[in-house]
Amino acid sequence: MSTKAQEVALDKALVARFKAGDESAFEEMVSRYWDRIYAMVHKLLRNTQDAEEVTQDAFIRAHRGLENFRGDSSFSTWLYQIATNLARNRYWYWWRRKRDKSVSFDQPIAAESATTLAEVFPAEIESPEDIAITNEFKDRVAAAMELLNEKHKEALILRNVRNLTYEEIADELQISIGTVKSRIARARESLREKMGHELL
């Protein structure tokens, strides 16, 4: 059996296990495909944070849709399609918002300098209304966080509040990196649902 055929067979087995109620099967899928999906999305978006968020979103969508996955194409083809569509949407959304500000503030001011434009230009000053809206939003996120499953909340805090890497979180929680990624994706999905899909 070729490597490709073996992969397809393993994916089918994992899908069947997931549909039978085995949640760990999805964690295995995340472990198998995370790096490949991330690399493909990063090539399209060329931005680490966007690539990470789109990769997480792809797995969230896959988790939601897997129950109805009929297997007309292979699982990997289906997952890549989800990720590609999300990456394209993110790119066009970004482009529409930024097309009148075509200079990246993350780029160095000169080839021989590490100083970026963001460090040279002062940040935009927030109005009192902006601050009030931001604070209200933070309060609502905090309230929604309290409603999350403890394990999911813990993983999300380590990632988004303490800015730990997946490897550091795995070490701290004594779990696999695949489980860390799966928990964070599930936490984001739950948070989004609790906030009425405001967190896009």
From TrEMBL:
Start and end residues of each RNA polymerase sigma factor 70 region 4 type domain: 140-191
Highest rank taxon of the organism: Bacteria
Keywords: DNA-binding, Sigma factor, Transcription, Transcription regulation
SUPFAM superfamilies from the UniProt entry: Sigma2 domain of RNA polymerase sigma factors (SSF88946), Sigma3 and sigma4 domains of RNA polymerase sigma factors (SSF88659)
Swiss-Prot/TrEMBL GO biological process terms: DNA-templated transcription initiation
Signal peptide: none
GO molecular function, one term: DNA binding
InterPro entries hit by this protein: RNA_pol_sigma-70-like, RNA_pol_sigma-70_dom, RNA_pol_sigma70_r2, RNA_pol_sigma70_r4_t2, RNA_pol_sigma_r2, RNA_pol_sigma_r3/r4-like, WH-like_DNA-bd_sf
Keyword Endoplasmic reticulum: no
Domain RNA polymerase sigma-70 region: 29-91
Family matches, as Pfam families: Sigma70_r2 (PF04542), Sigma70_r4_2 (PF08281)
Family per record: Belongs to the sigma-70 factor family. ECF subfamily.
Protein name: Sigma-70 family RNA polymerase sigma factor
